User: Which sequence fits this backbone?
């Protein structure tokens, strides 16, 4: 009797295993063949409509495969997260991070955070406040050109290898961008920024006829307050009103003493793409000391 019970239990286990296998197989069959979990739409946040269409098309191509030869990537429970992130990085050059989540059984939400470009570093690339270099579109390529010698490294960001500038800190780049914006609001449009071997930063007007020169190690917020006080104080204030287009340079490297010059002489060093500009004593036409 005991042996017979053991035999019956054994058969029961086998039947349970077979039934379980059949149920799992049937479940996989239904999952694969029905549209209940089929991904019918992608909601993309963080890019414009034109790029959204291109991105969804790229993802649709990537979702054709299967995981473990069984589970289709076009179903919401087994979508290919890595393929979606790769598609985003392929199409959106300035991707900082990608978040992928299910909205419902038929919709996937893709949220894209993008780097904010601050300066151009070549004709086709820009730099973010984090020092990350990436390809730019037409609008971003109108940013000031930052000419500097810099060391770079490769860093993996959002699943993609990125070139990163190591020589400038994020906080400083943000402050410099604000300083440049202030110059553009009060004096002239900045076309080129040069960090030379003397650790001076020169901000050139479009066309190179004027520039502002500052010391990199100085506080940019304090430097801006000094400049703002100078251009709001005579005689510099009056000269900027009467002959702003004749401005050659404003030098703010010497504490609260601001040097400047007006004249029609063109800045040859800018046209030659020089990385260094020196101002000799005989070149100083006027001085404003702030007290």
Assistant:
């Amino acid at each position: 009797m005991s042996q017979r019970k053991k035999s019956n239990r054994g058969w029961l286990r086998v039947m349970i295993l077979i039934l379980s296998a059949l149920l799992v197989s049937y479940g996989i069959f239904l999952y694969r063949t029905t549209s209940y979990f089929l991904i019918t739409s992608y909601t993309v946040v963080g890019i414009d409509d034109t790029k959204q269409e291109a991105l969804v098309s790229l993802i649709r191509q990537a979702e054709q495969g299967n995981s473990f030869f069984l589970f289709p990537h076009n179903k919401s429970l087994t979508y290919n997260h890595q393929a979606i992130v790769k598609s985003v990085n392929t199409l959106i050059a300035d991707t900082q991070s990608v978040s992928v989540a299910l909205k419902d059984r038929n919709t996937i939400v893709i949220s894209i955070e993008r780097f904010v470009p601050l300066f151009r570093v070549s004709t086709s690339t820009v730099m973010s406040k984090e020092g990350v270099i990436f390809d730019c579109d037409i609008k971003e390529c109108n940013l000031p050109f930052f000419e500097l010698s810099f060391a770079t490294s490769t860093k993996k960001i959002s699943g993609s290898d990125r070139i990163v500038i190591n020589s400038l800190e994020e906080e400083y780049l943000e402050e410099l961008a604000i300083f440049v914006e202030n110059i553009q609001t009060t004096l002239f449009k900045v076309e080129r920024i040069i960090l030379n071997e003397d650790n001076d930063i020169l901000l050139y007007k479009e066309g190179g006829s004027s520039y502002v020169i500052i010391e990199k190690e100085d506080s940019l917020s304090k430097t801006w307050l000094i400049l703002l006080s100078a251009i709001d104080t005579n005689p510099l204030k009056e000269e900027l009103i009467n002959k702003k287009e004749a401005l050659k340079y404003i030098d703010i490297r010497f504490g609260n003493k601001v040097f400047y010059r007006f004249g029609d002489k063109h800045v040859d060093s800018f046209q030659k793409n020089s990385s260094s500009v020196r101002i000799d004593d005989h070149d100083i036409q006027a001085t404003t000391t702030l007290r």
Observations:
- Confidence is low (pLDDT under 50) at residues 265-286.
- The CA atoms of residues 247 and 262 lie 4 Å apart.
